[in-house]
Amino acid sequence: MPVPALLFPADPLNPRRPDPHYTWEARLLRELGGEYHLVDHDALLAGRAEEAVRRVPSDCGALWYRGWMLPSSDYAAFARALAGRGATLLTSAAGYASAHELPGWYGVFEGATPSSVWIPVPARVGGAAGEAFGAAGGAAGGATGGAAAPCQGELADAVARLGGRGPAVVKDYVKSRKEAWHEACYVPELADLAAVGRVVERFVELQGEYLAGGVVLRRYEEFARTTAGRPEGGGSAGGRPAVGRSTGGRPAARARRTVEARVWWLDGEPVLVGPHPDTPDHPAEPDLTEVRPLVRALGCRFVTTDLADRADGSGWRVVEVGDGQVSDLPRGVDASGLLSSLIAT
Ligand SMILES: Nc1ncnc2c1ncn2[C@@H]1O[C@H](COP(=O)(O)OP(=O)(O)OP(=O)(O)O)[C@@H](O)[C@H]1O
Ligand SMILES: [Mg+2]
After folding, report:
1. Which ligand is nearest to the Cα of residue 102, counting in written order?
2. Which residue, by CA, sits nearest to atom 1 of ligand 1?
3. Which domain holds residue 263?
4. Test site for ligand 1: of 170, 172, 178, most ligand atoms within 8 A of the Cβ
5. Is residue 13 classed exposed, middle or buried when 0-12, 13-18 and 19+ CB atoms within 10 A define those classes?
6. Under 8 Å between Cβ of 323 and 264
7. Residues 104 and 245 in one domain
8. Among 319, 321, 323, 325, residue to substitute to test ligand 1 (most atoms within 8 Å of Cβ)
9. Model confidence over 263-283: pLDDT tens digits?
10. Which of 42, 146, 152, 222 has the fewest CB atoms within 10 Å around its CB?
């Protein structure tokens, strides 16, 4: 049986080459004897999946994708367009959504990850803002073209489900705005519903049209942090490449970052344990005993888990799960074992 090839996003300025962010991975893959084809990420996001995959040869069999994040609906269209050419993405559309979106993996990882609740937020059609909560701060009405923030009642209900008090973190089903920590990510006290509303509303405003799925509230847990404050804002502003290409250049958020290990799993086995892209110089050695059976229970072939050590040393926690195809791999990490495993399956 032929081995799988990889798909990388093409460079928008030179469609015959991989996007510069993925050049080193593509080069390493070739050195390892692997093959890749290129896809048009912008066309995928624009709903033109057939056009996006037109450079993928017909009947090329099994494929893994390594590229920018895609909303789950676009990934499904991507998989269908490839199937139409006789090619199969080895992660199904359902598998992608399970690993990529918090509600897809949370049930399996509950207990090993901070307690979380979520409020689905329908994409805004026609610009109606809905009843926004906590309009202070000038964020009333949300972002142009974005979704409307959850209403006061929905937030109060979500806060109650999360225990009603204590600090929390806000994100959507996929990403946070951690670079705007105090403004759009961290809630010091859930009992202060007006403050919850302000943070959520600012988060929804900043996410704009990229808000994925809905608003998630997670109980804040104290994790071990870097000791020396690295200059922030110059590196990846998201450990997983975001839907667009905007990374880096964002203002400083917190002086000390959580030290996370990113563990790459293929068929339930850890094929690479590396640093999180936000702290590439801080390798961690997580204990995988508890996480391994959970990854297997999730049942997705290629996933990542970001693990952080509790500040009190009481054990490793799953900060988030991701689809391995769209998780970022920091430069400097030896990815040869990972890539070799992908093309050997
Ligand atoms: N429940 C929590 N308790 C404490 N800190 C948290 C919690 N959730 C998230 N954080 C902090 O916020 C950061 C961003 O959260 P998270 O990883 O969920 O979002 P993200 O935007 O998807 O990040 P990534 O760049 O890994 O894709 C984490 O790296 C961690 O430092
Ligand atoms: Mg993360």
Report:
1. 1
2. 220
3. 99-108+223-329
4. 178
5. exposed
6. no
7. yes
8. 319
9. 999 999 999 999 999 988 888
10. 222
Ligand 1 atom at minimal distance to the Cα of residue 328: 27
Of 72, 75, 65, nearest to 29 (Cα)? 65
Q: Show the CA angle centred on residue 333, arms to residues 32 and 38, nearest 5°.
A: 50
Whole-number Å distance between alpha carbons of 93 and 44: 14
Q: 135 and 51, same structural domain?
A: no
The average confidence (pLDDT) of the chain is 88
Contact 65, 49 (CB under 8 A): no
For the record, the structure tokens of 120 come out as 């689905």
Give the ligand at the shortest distance from the Cα of 260: 1
In the reported structure, the alpha carbon of residue 28 is separated from the centroid of ligand 2 by a whole-number distance in angstroms of 25
pLDDT of residue 254: 54
Of 105, 170, 176, the one to substitute when testing ligand 1's pocket (max ligand atoms within 8 A of C-beta) is: 176
Count the domains in the chain.
3
Instruction: Give the model confidence (pLDDT) of 113-151 as tens digits.
Output: 999 999 999 876 544 333 333 333 333 333 446 889 999
